[in-house]
Each structure stands twice: as C-alpha cells, then as structure tokens.
Design brief:
Elements (H helix, E strand, L loop, with lengths): L1 H12 L3 H20 L6 H18 L3 H14 L12 H20 L3 H12 L16 H14 L1 H21 L8 H6 L3 H8 L2 H6 L7 H18 L11 E4 L3 H11 L5 H10 L1 E4 L8 E3 L11 E2 H9 L3 H6 L2 H10 E10 L2 E8 L4 E7 L3 H12 L9 H24 L4
Antiparallel strand pairs: 1-2, 2-3, 3-5, 4-5, 5-6, 6-7
Length: 420
C-alpha cells in the first residue's frame, strides 16, 4: 500500500494525474483491509494521504461526480468540527478544508448558492490548529469571493453584504499575503463598482486606517481610540486588551527644562504643547509589536528626549555599529543635532525612532539590528545635512498612528485565524 501511494505521489508531481489516480485507487482495497483489521500504525494519516492524492487528481481531471463522492467520503471519515482542530493531523485538516471548498464550488456551479455559501462558511470556521503557523486559507479567499458573487447575483438583497465583505477581505489579503490576488475578471470588475466602493467607504476600520490630510496629533490619537473600540468592542476581537490601550503620564515644565539643559537644545513648541497638554503617550502595551511610545519623564534610561545615538544605545544596549562606522566627532554631532523622543516597535528586532532636529523639524528613522546596512546610509546622510526632519509633529504622529492601526488590524486578523 505504501509503495502504491508513493508511486501515486510521484506521478502527481509529474502532473500525470491519470497514472497517479490509478496507483491511488490500487492502494484502496489494501487500505480498507488493513483498516478493518486494525493493522495500521496511524490509520488517520494513511487515509489522509490517500484522500489528498485523490482530491488533487480529480480536480485536475475535471471529474465533478467522482470529486463530490470523494469529498463526501473525506467528511464522513473525518467529521472535524471547530472543537477538534488540535486533535487532528495537519494533512487531515487540509483535506477537510479542501473537501468543503470543492463541494462549495460544485454546489455553486449547479446553482445551489445557499449550500455553497454554507459550505464555505463551515470551511472558514476551521481556523488554524495550534500546530499550524500559517494562514490555512491562502488558496481559498478568492474561491470564497467567487462563490459569494454567484450568491449575490442570484439573490442580491440577501447576499450583498456577504459578497462585498468577502471581496473586501480578499483585497486585504492580496495586499498582505504573497500568493493571494484578485485575478478573477468577474471579481476584479467589482473593485470599481460604486456600490462596492460605498460599502468600503462605510467600513469603520477602513475609514480609520489612514489619517486625513492635515490631521492633528490629537485627532490621530482619537482615531486610534476609535479603531480600538471598533475592533475590541464592536467586533469582539480575540486579542488581549493590551493591544487597545492608550495611556499617558504627566510631564511638567521642569521636566522639560531639565532635559533641554542636559542636551543643550530647544524643544519644538508643538512637542512642548503635546507634553504639557497630554503628557507622554503609550499607544498599546509597549511590549507589543506595533506599539507607539513617547518617552515619559520618569524612567531609568528612556527619559523624554535625548541625543540620537545616546537614546538608541539606551534602548537597545551597547550598539557596537555606531563605534565601528562613525568617529567620536560624528557621534557627538548626531547627539547634538538630532533628538529622539519616541519609537514605534515594529518587531523585537526593529524600531522606528522618532526625532526632532535643531531647527524644530520632525522625522523618523528605522533601526533593524539584523540589517544595519539599511540604516547606515541614512545616518551618513544626516551627518551631511541631507536627511533631517521634514515633517511637522502632526504629520509625523498621523503617519505613525497609520502604522500602529495597520499592524493592529493585522494582529486582529491573525488572532481570528489562530495564527497570532
């Protein structure tokens, strides 16, 4: 049996689907006999291997009746529910999802759109098990949208929102995930449809994802609060509450004066106003990737603002790269002309540092401890006066809140798939 299934696999890789199917079907009587005698070490794995080969071949050979029968056999042997995910082999879960998807497509093809939609929704409830770390639906987002389109065309009032939501999610995945695209012509035609565009424009998270031109720093923070409420409360996000917090700590004029004296700089009026009106700011728990932090007045090392290199070293520890790439005079120049006052944590290895310069302009630079060569040219440009702050504080905060919200949406999506 094992030899036959192995030969079937070889033929499948060669794209000789007929030969692969012949070998797989030759293994079936042996598989059934061994199962009846309880003679298999891992019965589920053996049946899953057989079904995987047969499903792949029948789809390629365009044999809908045989494919439907095989899909039903998969679901009968493996009645997997949402509560069973962590108890199943990965190949079994993949087969069950494929069987549900194929049955949905077949149902839509014969005009039974209600059954097709129900089967796809059943499939998408089988999110990743604890042993799966990647999105299990990469090859299914477009198929789901195609099925919903058929349902929408059949019953527009009933399936309008479902179709638009599936297309919207497909668009989101196409931006984020390699291998996902909107290349079906019928779906692509709807991307500019006025009704769909109106649906997107009314989508709360889409409205909040990007700040409007001229957005103020306070409006940007309020936008984060609104996005957090939409995800956590309205949509009941499975994420931990620390992803949705926005906290502040008081900063006094004396705190600011002390740091200005230490670094021999003048704090820009906009940043002074933010500190005195709102205090220092933490958007999300600072341990989370995607969090934004404007440094507080009371901290052992990251105090309000300070010299460019000094603050990076304080945050990261001893960064040998600066000493190797730059002279003491160059480091002193960076510390005397550029002042870091916060960051966005992109990951454990990458932070975007927020700074202002001696002219009161604002900017950001990303430091990745695994890719120093990306940051080094930017720092060299700063030394030559070619890369200084070019933004207002409002524009900088708006841009960074865009990043924070975008990452929060990603984390929410991952958590719903159980791949957080």
């Amino acid at each position: 049996m094992t030899a036959l299934l192995r030969k079937a696999g070889v033929q499948l890789r060669k794209k000789d689907y007929v030969a692969s199917l012949v070998f797989a079907d030759a293994a079936l009587p042996i598989l059934e006999e061994l199962s009846d005698d309880d003679a298999l070490d891992d019965e589920d794995a053996a049946w899953s291997g057989y079904f995987q080969l047969r499903l792949a071949c029948l789809e390629k050979l365009d044999m809908p009746d045989e494919l439907a029968a095989t899909c039903e056999a998969v679901l009968e042997r493996f009645p997997v529910g949402e509560e069973d995910l962590d108890d199943e082999e990965l190949i079994t879960l993949a087969n069950v999802r494929t069987a549900l998807t194929s049955l949905a497509v077949l149902a839509a093809g014969r005009g039974d759109v209600d059954a097709a939609v129900e089967l796809f929704e059943r499939c998408f409830r089988l999110v990743a098990s604890d042993a799966e770390h990647d999105d299990p639906f990469v090859d299914k987002y477009q198929q789901r949208a195609i099925v919903y389109l058929a349902a929408y065309q059949s019953a527009p009032h009933r399936y309008r929102d479902g179709f638009f939501a599936s297309l919207h999610h497909l668009q989101y995945k196409a931006r984020k995930v390699h291998g996902v695209s909107v290349d079906d012509a019928a779906l692509a035609a709807y991307l500019t449809d006025p009704a769909y565009l109106a649906f997107k424009a009314s989508h709360p998270v889409d409205r909040l994802r990007t700040g409007a031109p001229g957005e103020t720093r306070q409006a940007a923070l309020e936008r984060f609060r609104a996005a957090a409420h939409e995800l956590r409360v309205v949509r009941e996000s499975p994420l931990w509450d620390g992803h949705f917090t926005l906290e502040s700590a008081p900063v006094t004029p004396e705190d600011l004066a002390a740091r200005e004296k230490k670094w021999g700089c003048k704090l820009p009026a906009a940043l002074r106003g933010l500190y005195l009106e709102h205090g220092s700011v933490e958007v999300q728990d600072p341990e989370q990737s995607g969090s934004l932090r404007l440094y507080p007045a009371n901290h052992r090392s990251m105090i309000l603002f300070g010299g460019f290199v000094d603050m990076i070293v304080n945050l990261w520890g001893d960064r040998w790269e600066f000493g190797e790439y730059f002279t003491d005079a160059e480091i002193a120049f960076l510390d005397a002309n550029f002042f870091i006052f916060g960051h966005v944590k992109n990951s454990e290895n990458s932070y975007t540092h927020l700074f202002f310069d001696c002219e009161g302009r604002f900017g950001s630079v990303t430091y990745d401890q695994n890719n120093w060569n990306k940051m080094a040219p930017q720092v060299k440009a700063m030394l030559k006066g070619k890369l200084t702050g070019t933004l207002s504080l409002d524009a900088l905060m708006s841009d960074q809140i865009d990043v924070v919200i975008d990452r929060l949406i990603d984390r929410d999506d991952e958590a719903r798939l159980n791949i957080d």
